[in-house]
Amino acid sequence: MTIQWTHYQAPGMFDELIESGLPRPAAEALCRHFESLADEELDEQREAVEMAIRAMGITFTVYSQEEGSIDRAWPFDIIPRIIELKEWRQIEAGLVQRVKALNMFIDDLYHEQRIVKDGVFPGDLLKDSKNFRPECIGIDPPHRVWAHICGSDLVRDRDGTVYVLEDNLRVPSGVSYMLENREVMKRVLPEMFEDYSILPVDDYPTRLYATLAALSPRPVDFPEVVVLTPGIYNSAYFEHSYLAQQMGAELVEGSDLFVDDEDIVYMRTIGGPQRVDVIYRRIDDLFLDPEAFHPDSMLGVPGLLRAWRAGNVALANAPGAGVADDKVVYAYVPDAIRYYLNEEPILPNVPTYRCLYAEEREYVLEHLAELVVKPANESGGYGMLIGPQAGAAEIEQFRQLITADPRNYIAQPMLGLSTVPTLVGHDAKPRHVDLRPFILSGPSAYVTMGGLTRVALVEGSTVVNSSQGGGSKDTWIIDLEEEG
Amino acid sequence: MLSRVAQNIYWLARYLERAENTARLIIVSTHLQLDLPKAVRPGWTPLIAITGGDELYQNHYRGYSEADVVRFLINDERNPASILNSLKYARENARTMRDFLPRDGWELLNETYRRARSDAYQGIMQRSRYAYLSQLIQSIQALTGLFSGTMTHDAGYACLRIGRNLERADMTTRIIDVRSGSQLPDGTEWEPYEGVQWISVLRSMGAYQMFRRQTQQAVGWSSVLKFLFKDRQFPRAFAFCLSELAYELQALPNSEEQVAQAEELLERISQLDPEQLDPNGLHQLVDDLQLDLGLLHQAISQRYFTYQ
Predict the structure, then answer these.
(1) pTM of the model
(2) Interface membership of A55 toward B (CB under 8 Å)
(3) Which architecture does CATH list for A218-312?
(4) Global ipTM
(5) Of A34, A318, B3, B272, which has fewest CB within 10 angstroms of its CB?
(6) Between chains, do B98 and A252 touch, taking CB under 8 Å as contact?
(7) CATH node for A353-413
């Protein structure tokens, strides 16, 4: 049995590659390739992918209670997701606009709070925000940018509209998988890269380095940029190490750094202490500095916040940037765009009910079985209620959770996430996907060409997180106009 | 360069070298058993003593059967010096500094560990043992080549070579020690076997051919010991390892004391006259040298790896 696209159906969903049994224009050559493969050839390609991933050592770490932390090979599907360049340019512009406003919003919250005074954003929300850091009030980071690296999750609904589902402004991860997925594809499907104009993704590390180096407090030609990791047991350790490697930056752990009496940060080297200028930190705020936050943090560096406040070291992202990726704050982002930029948002938010407000809460409590409920500050898909798929007991549990702590919850309609054909046995089946592009902000902005497409490998599932049975695909931005 | 990374890369090299040389030790012992008449075969006991695992071994095994000893040295998880554990630790060290190693090196190390683990039974069965171990030695040699050919030869690479040469010097003394522990009884009927034993030792280190080219002397006690201890051109000879070590130490900042320590050890070896050694004296010498290498390791650790 070979793949027959005329039999491929994604009922009621928007499929990224196939429309009514026919490949979309940008997917034509790709689909022809896959339907030309016999079962054995499909198996061969699958094996080639597995071998490449194993040989490249692409892993992610999962924590399980039985086994502790274990490395798993990265689950990857060989059929890529394709977006036409023309559409992508729109999305790109929307992301740049959004992140610009987010950075202005964060900077405002830690300074005059004009947006609160002008009644656009309720200041009460800050009081019990888990990610608002009073320690950051009054600090002026370089370029007034707080979130230098942002990963925003996009989804496409049944009618083809692309929505922003959430913004990750703390330590967004996944970009290394985006880069590695492309490497895998180039190894196993080189002929496709000859046929198509697939826009390259691999300048990200260079851009990231430039963004970081521009933050250096010392005017030196080669600032010392380091990547700060919690260590090899962190689920994203692979990425930390990968990015350090690609940037030629030192990968440091908290114990490699220290802050002296003059609030200067050094790393311990074989030649003695060496000054550090910029820290791309992949540790959450609260673990960064035991002097300022969790006193028992073993991961952080005592005095780091002192050094940052004194302007002797740059931290990316800046502490406190997470205040804007709170899922309740999310609901106000379109207003923030209008407020700071005086522009209409290019990319829409998913309609969001804020349980904080009695009226919206009532609606949510009445419609729990239809909605997706999310806690404000959890990531990785944990602690969510997917109403249409939940049992009565689970719904009841969330009713109590929301009533007890309404501020901590938002709810959204269940979107029909778009699908992409995904190899299942010897056939292609529709599986739901999202997309996480990465946006760099500094003196100028940069958006990755596409991003990380995550796919829910389980039939019907919309949970794309790798910790919960998700996988990923390469994402091709294709310039059709150039092909002609 | 970060102290932590320097330490990891040093240990990466040591563990890889240890795995390779343990494989070599097993090969030489297997051959010795085959080459000697039953009555005088040394058995497998000395091998455990040489790798320093006596107590641990006795806690878990009864007797020194070939299968048990080889299993203990190849894939017993309880033995921290087993080949599989050495590879595992090497891999763990590499994992914490993937940004530092050439990517191909990490891939090959991964693959070497994976294969060594899944095929371990081949190393335990006598028939496939040689193939398994020599494949392993080749993979580690390939890694050495990969590091040499694709890594910047900076302080990190110096640490790699320091670790490798220190471990190699140590393991060379251990391999020589196999020989001191398998002395034949007096009597002319055993004489032909004397040469056979030395040839086995040389072969295990890939040194037979090089020995021949270098010395043009009969294979025997003093010529082989002289070669393995004192030669400055054969890369597994003790003196060669030490002079490499001293040379690489000079690439690191503030290494005067450590260099002096290595050179002192070299000087002692150059004064050595193997003809004056009897088997007991040889065993004693090996012990002393291992102790000195331990002190050199301490001095290097304190200077470069300790955080404060």
Answers:
(1) 0.80
(2) yes
(3) 3-Layer(aba) Sandwich (3.40)
(4) 0.76
(5) B272
(6) no
(7) 3.30.1490.270
